[in-house]
Design goal:
87% of the residues lie in helices and 0% in strands. The protein has 438 residues and is mostly helical.
C-alpha cells in the first residue's frame, strides 16, 4: 500500500474523529445550556419567592407591632374604665344614702310644717271664735252642740280674754313660724346637699360612659389589628404554598424539557457511536483504536519520511513514549499536522475521496445493522420510528464527504489525543448513557 494512500486513510480517520469530537462538544454545549437555564429559572423562582415571603414577613412584623401598641392602648383604657367604675360605684352608694336621708328629712320637714301651719290656723280660729262664743250669744244658741261646748265651754267672764288673746297670739305665732319656713328651710338645705350628690353621680356616670366607649373603641381597633395580622399570616401561607406549586411545576417542566432535549440528542449521539464503529471497521486494521491518540504523530512521522509504514511510525511513537517525550512529540506533530492539513489537503484530495467513499459505505452498512436491530423488536417499532428516522439522517449527515472535510479543517488545531479522548468519553462515560442508548 502506497504511503500517500495510508496517509489519506489516516487523515480520513482523523476527519471522522474530528466529526465525533465536534458533535460531542455540541452535545456538551446543549446540555450545559439546558442546565444553566434550569439553574437560572430555579434561582429566579427562588429569588421571587424569597422576595415575596420577605415582603409579607415585614408586613406581619409591622402588623404585630401595631397590634401590640393597640393592645397596650386597650389595656390602659380598660384599667382606666375599671378605676372610673369603682369611683362611680362609690359615688352611687353615697348618693343613695344621701337620697334616703334627704327624702326622710324632707318628709319630716313637710309634715312638721303642715302640722305647725294647721295648729296656727286652728289657734287663730279659736281666738276669733272665743269672743263670739262669749260675747256674741253663740253659747246660748249652741247649748246642745257637744263639740262647741267641749271647745268653748270653759270660756267665761274671767277666761274669755285669755282664750281670745291666747288663741290669736298663738295662732299668729305658729303661722308666722310656718311661713318663715323653719321646717322648709331645714329640708331645703338637705335637699341641696342631696342635689349635689346627684350631680356628682351624674358626672361619674357620664365619665364612666366615656371611658367605656373609649375602651370599646380601643378593643375594636385592637381586634382589627389582630385580624390584619391573621390575614397576613394566611397570605404568607398562601405565598408559600404557591411557591411550592410553582417550584413543582417548574421542576416538572424543566425535567420534561431535559427529557425532550435528550430525545433530540439521541440520534446524534447514536450516530456518533455508529460513526466510531464505522471508523473502527474501516481503519481498525490499519491503526488500533488504542493508538488513535497518537494519530497526529503517526501522520507526522510518515509525512516527514521518518517512517514508511504505520508499523514503523508506531515504533517511533513507542520509543518517544518510553523516553517520556510523547506529549511534546504529539504537540509538535499536531502543530505540523495543522499546517499540512491546510497546505496538503488538496494534494491528498483524490485519495481521501476514495477513503471517504469507503467510510460512507461502512456507515451505510452500520445504519442497515441498526435498522435491522430495531425492526427485530416489532412491538416497539411504532414508538421509535421517529428516532430511527432521525438517526438515519444523522448518520448520513455525519458521514458525508463535505462534513468530514470541514471537520478535518475546523479541528486541525486539536490534537489527536484530545479527539480520541472526546470519543472515549462519548462512548463510555455515564454522563452520555442516555444519549447513546437506543
Amino acid at each position: 500500500m502506497e504511503k500517500d494512500i495510508i496517509i489519506s486513510r489516516l487523515y480520513t480517520l482523523r476527519a471522522g474523529l474530528s466529526v465525533i469530537s465536534q458533535e460531542k462538544r455540541n452535545i456538551d454545549r446543549r446540555l450545559a445550556e439546558n442546565e444553566k437555564n434550569r439553574a437560572a429559572q430555579t434561582k429566579n423562582l427562588q429569588d421571587s419567592q424569597s422576595g415575596e415571603e420577605a415582603r409579607v414577613n415585614r408586613a406581619i412584623a409591622n402588623a404585630k407591632k401595631d397590634h401590640s401598641e393597640k393592645k397596650k392602648k386597650y389595656d390602659e383604657c380598660r384599667v382606666k374604665y375599671e378605676e372610673t367604675r369603682d369611683i362611680a360605684e362609690c359615688s352611687l352608694s353615697r348618693a343613695r344614702r344621701a337620697d334616703f336621708s334627704g327624702r326622710l328629712k324632707k318628709s319630716f320637714g313637710i309634715i312638721l310644717g303642715m302640722l305647725t301651719s294647721l295648729l296656727g290656723v286652728g289657734l287663730l280660729i279659736y281666738g276669733i271664735m272665743a269672743p263670739i262664743w262669749f260675747f256674741g250669744g253663740l253659747k246660748e244658741k249652741s247649748v246642745d252642740n257637744v263639740v262647741l261646748n267641749a271647745l268653748f265651754g270653759w270660756v267665761n267672764d274671767g277666761t274669755g280674754p285669755i282664750a281670745m288673746w291666747g288663741g290669736l297670739i298663738g295662732g299668729i305665732g305658729f303661722i308666722i313660724l310656718a311661713l318663715c319656713g323653719w321646717c322648709n328651710g331645714f329640708f331645703t338645705d338637705k335637699f341641696h346637699a342631696y342635689t349635689g350628690h346627684a350631680k356628682t353621680l351624674r358626672a361619674a356616670r357620664k365619665r364612666l360612659d366615656g371611658e367605656r366607649q373609649a375602651m370599646n373603641t380601643a378593643k375594636q381597633t385592637m381586634d382589627k389589628a389582630q385580624a390584619y395580622v391573621t390575614k397576613l399570616e394566611n397570605e404568607l401561607r398562601e405565598v408559600q404554598e404557591k411557591g411550592k406549586r410553582q417550584a413543582a411545576a417548574l421542576n416538572l417542566s424543566l425535567t420534561a424539557g431535559k427529557a425532550a432535549l435528550i430525545e433530540y440528542l439521541k440520534p446524534i449521539g447514536m450516530a456518533c457511536i455508529a460513526l466510531f464503529d464505522g471508523l473502527q471497521a474501516a481503519f481498525g486494521q490499519l491503526v488500533d483504536v488504542r493508538d488513535w491518540g497518537n494519530l497526529d504523530y503517526l501522520i507526522y512521522s510518515m509525512e516527514t519520511g521518518r517512517a514508511d509504514s504505520v508499523k514503523e511510525a508506531l515504533q517511533l511513537a513507542d520509543r518517544e513514549e518510553q523516553t517520556n517525550r510523547i506529549l511534546e512529540a504529539v504537540a509538535m506533530a499536531s502543530a505540523a499536522i495543522c499546517r499540512s492539513i491546510t497546505a496538503g489537503l488538496a494534494r491528498l484530495q483524490n485519495d481521501m475521496r476514495v477513503c471517504f467513499a469507503t467510510l460512507t459505505n461502512e456507515m451505510t452498512r452500520q445504519n442497515a445493522i441498526i435498522m435491522e436491530g430495531v425492526a427485530g423488536v416489532s412491538e416497539q417499532v411504532a414508538n421509535v420510528s421517529q428516532n430511527v428516522a432521525g438517526l438515519a439522517g444523522a448518520i448520513a449527515e455525519l458521514s458525508s464527504e463535505t462534513r468530514l472535510s470541514n471537520a478535518l479543517l475546523e479541528e486541525s488545531n486539536q490534537t489527536s489525543s484530545k479527539l480520541a479522548d472526546d470519543v472515549h468519553q462519548l462512548r463510555y462515560y455515564a454522563d452520555y448513557a442516555a444519549i447513546r442508548s437506543a
